[in-house]
Design brief:
Elements lengths: L27 E3 L17 H5 L6 E2 L23 H6 L1 H8 L7 E8 L2 E2 L4 E7 L4 H9 L8 E10 L12 E10 L8 E3 L2 E3 L2 E13 L9 E7 L2 E2 L5 E7 L6 H16 L11 E9 L2 E10 L8 E3 L1 E4 L2 E13 L10
Antiparallel strand pairs: 1-2, 3-10, 4-8, 5-7, 6-7, 6-10, 9-10, 11-18, 12-16, 13-15, 14-15, 14-18, 17-18
Length: about 350
Amino acid sequence: LAFTIPAPQLEDYATLPQAESSGPAVTALSQPVTYTPTRTAYETVVAATSAAADSSAAKRQVNNACAPQPSSSNPPMGAQNDTPADFETDPILGDTSINAPVPNGYTQSFSNLNASVSAPGYLGLYLLDSYDPSACAAYCGGVVNGACQGFDIYFERDPSLDPADTCSNPPADTNIRCTHWGFGVDATAATNTGQYRDQFQVVIAGSNGYNTNRQPPAMTNFTGPTALPAAINAPLSSGAINSFQNAFDVTQCAVACQGQTAYDHIHATKGVYNACNFFNAYILSENNVPQGLYCSFYTQSWGPSYATNTGQTRGTDVYTVSESYSYYLTVNDTGMVGS
């Protein structure tokens, strides 16, 4: 965990860890959010996505041959012809999506798509009884540390019976699903158009995405946040970069920053160590799809005038920086043992 000193601090983003897209399992009915932020100071990566998608915590559809499947209790009366094409173009489902009110504290990212989000930072899934973005937002707002940054609500054409040899293409039900994400959602990430379960085709309609407007919270022992136009590109005194692919939870940066200092203090050279006095937290996206929360650590503070790193282009891939914030240690650490 010792500091590295790159110069300049502008990173080659293509060499940094890349996140994998994820989402709910095909047969999952609900996967309540079980997000757990970093608790250990020396921990650099937290696999909250794995915890959220753990099959032991997931409520799944009944998987017995031709068994009735759970469904939303109050979906709009659409998709009368019960075919995938009719479901995707059903005007009632489309109008419900288009006319849905935007929840307070959120901004709508996309509307009425025939695909749901598949991206890094999947947190969990809820089955709703009605198409209610505010109900989905309430679940999102309840995740610790404000880690839920966005959600996707959509209609899904699901089988009314568990498809099997004797009922390979059963009548369809309309389910209303609400997925939560540790990073903001964007139409670029809405790539899940459905799949087959035996001969039954699962498709999606009325997919709406919303992102929270709130900024990250204050951190214990730090002053901030300060909103920045880009990532810090400091000429010196720069340190290591940690990445977290689970959520935009700045608590993880604060814990890692102090853990970095604690480690270097223990391994001081002639009484001198690198103290993390300042960190920059931001989201790095590749081709508009968030790849993770990135935390850059520094031995000294840098002002907004050094926030000039907006990203870079590598071949056909475009890397961009967003949601950039800085925090500085309220009581400066001198980096000298005993001081």
